[in-house]
Design goal:
Layout: E1 21-23, H1 32-56, E2 61-63, H2 71-82, E3 90-92, H3 95-140, E4 145-148, H4 152-163, E5 171-175, H5 178-186, E6 190-193, H6 199-204, E7 212-215, H7 220-233, E8 238-243, H8 249-254, E9 259-262, H9 263-276, H10 278-288, E10 294-300, E11 316-322, E12 325-328, E13 342-348
Parallel strand pairs: 4-5, 4-7, 5-6, 7-8, 8-9
Antiparallel strand pairs: 1-6, 2-3, 10-13, 11-12, 11-13
Helix pairs in contact: 1-2, 1-3, 9-10
């Protein structure tokens, strides 16, 4: 098997691969360091306000050490009071000081504790919420699509699927780069960081329950290993894979792939067609770009079309899929149409938002 150059899945020798885990899409959340800094500033603000209150009413407080309360004593009293330590060496002895403690200092003490303890509680709550969300996601994920490799090919393939109505909740992206998975999360897709040639990584993507698997790695040997592992875990899923070199396509089919696309050859043929006929090249590019201009789609035969010939349908039929046979539109066996047939047709595209577009 011919091995091409470096690949996005194996090229990061300097990048430490973390343990495979599922990353769910998240809304924009403030950075943790900024959250902590903001809470510390709020706590310091509460402390400063308490010091000011005690300092302004320092005559109503008694210090067991020297009988008077200065600025340092005010800071000390505010600190031990807000932290609920309360040594009792400085106490409010006047009615006004005690009233201020009841109405202002005590609420400030509660607020101070909420700010400090709230950070820990928020972390615990977020972890619990994320764990619940992940368990719920695993329980409801069925018949989904797994994308192995979120580079140019994987992203373009997913863009085409989304243009045909695939929901983002039904997609799981697998890639060894955490930055790539973060990009997928921003687009609204769940992701798993890890090496897709390992079965435990694919199991985290719930591949055993997937309906279709797209292998869009850059190295052909990686694609073969992923296909072997995926087929072992899921016998019934449809596996579509891309290879760079055409001579590796048969090996990938033997590994379990249902369809193999030779990316280099396909691009070369489109280049050659564009040289011979730029207009024909433009039409072909339009057909493979889902969601704009003309689209090539597969659909079932409707009851009103049963018994008719291919040319009598409303759509422009290219081929007829009958069982496992693909019949051309000019094949005499393609007509009349049967209820179990599926048609490959060219239709006018409908506008569908692309990846990352606002919904």
């Amino acid at each position: 098997m011919k091995l091409p150059g470096q690949d996005a899945i194996a090229r990061r020798a300097d990048e430490q691969l973390v343990a495979a885990r599922v990353h769910m899409p998240r809304r924009v959340i403030e950075r943790p360091l900024r959250q902590v800094a903001k809470r510390l500033l709020m706590a310091m603000g509460v402390l400063a306000l308490t010091v000011l209150i005690v300092w302004l009413d320092r005559g109503g407080y008694h210090d067991n050490a020297d009988g008077k309360v200065d600025l340092l004593d005010s800071v000390y009293y505010a600190t031990v009071t807000l932290s609920t330590t309360g040594y009792g060496d400085i106490v409010p002895h006047s009615d006004s000081a005690r009233l201020v403690n009841v109405l202002l200092v005590t609420p400030l003490r509660v607020l101070f504790l909420i700010i400090l303890v709230g950070t820990t509680l928020e972390v615990l709550t977020e972890r619990t919420r994320e764990e619940w969300r992940l368990n719920r996601w695993r329980a409801t994920l069925r018949e989904h699509t797994v994308i192995v490799g979120f580079g140019t090919k994987g992203r373009s393939a997913l863009q085409t699927l989304c243009a045909t109505g695939l929901k983002k909740e039904q997609v799981v992206v697998v890639d060894p780069s955490s930055k790539v998975i973060e990009t997928a999360n921003v687009d609204g897709f769940a992701g798993v960081v890890g090496d897709a040639t390992r079965s435990d990584v694919l199991l985290r993507a719930e591949l055993q329950r997937a309906r279709q698997i797209i292998i869009a790695t850059q190295r052909d040997d990686t694609a073969v290993l992923v296909a072997l592992t995926a087929r072992q875990l899921n016998r019934g899923a449809k596996i579509v894979a891309a290879v760079r070199e055409e001579e590796n396509a048969p090996l990938l089919r033997q590994s379990g792939a249902d369809a193999v696309i030779t990316s280099a050859s396909a691009a070369g043929r489109l280049l050659g067609l564009s040289v011979l006929s730029p207009s024909a090249g433009t039409v072909m590019e339009d057909l493979i770009q889902q969601g704009s201009g003309l689209d090539i789609v597969e659909r079932p035969v409707i009851k009103s079309e049963v018994g008719k010939s291919v040319r009598e349908t409303d759509d422009l039929v290219v081929s007829v899929l009958r069982g496992h046979r693909l019949l051309g539109y000019d094949d005499p066996k393609a007509s009349p149409l049967q209820l179990t047939d599926r048609l490959i047709t060219i239709v006018r595209a409908t506008n569908v938002p692309s990846l990352g577009a606002a919904e």
